[in-house]
Known about the structure:
It is a single chain. By secondary structure, the chain is of the alpha+beta class. It is built from five helices and nine strands; from the N terminus they run H-E-E-E-H-H-E-E-H-H-E-E-E-E. The chain has a five-stranded antiparallel β-sheet with strand order 1-2-3-5-4, sandwiched between helices. Strands 6-9 form a two-stranded antiparallel ribbon. A hairpin with a 2-residue loop joins strand 4 and strand 5. It is globular. The chain starts with a helix and ends in a 6-residue tail after the last strand. The model has no long low-confidence stretch (mean pLDDT 83).
Amino acid sequence: xxxxxxxxxxxxxxxxxxxxxxxxxxxxxxxxxxxxxxxxxxxxxxxxxxxxxxxxxxxxxxxxxxxxxxxxxxxxxxxxxxxxxxxxxxxxxxxxxxxxxxxxxxxxxxxxxxxxxxxxxxxxxxxxxxxxxxxxxxxxxxxxxxxxxxxxxxxxxxxxxxxxxxxxxxxxxxx
Length: 175
């Protein structure tokens, strides 16, 4: 029986060329892929099939659709989502920078001014989502990505909140 990456590679060949696995967690596996149509690198996140069977693909896709409408500089945008061969996936930009988790593992702590800036950026993104009735539900250092960091290894770059895939809707969405 073929594994999930072989199934995805075949099913998505006209849209995305999967290059390699970036990481895996309890809910999903993330692949580095090439967006054929737009000629860009993307991250393709695939919900584990056994989890999709329990959660339900439709519910997960509905939550992704909701969070895809969050347009904020400190929230990682979603480009696309779908389901192939019973496997739910979504596509987001590939961020070459590191996560807050990686930065803290490397440096143990951020300088105070940088920590305040990062916290303010995260709060701005979360505040925006909350105003629209979306609660993240899985905020942790591994879900904070940094884009555009300095080459010196000390400047983290701009904080982007990732992984709204299991977000919770709290009441009506605001427009």
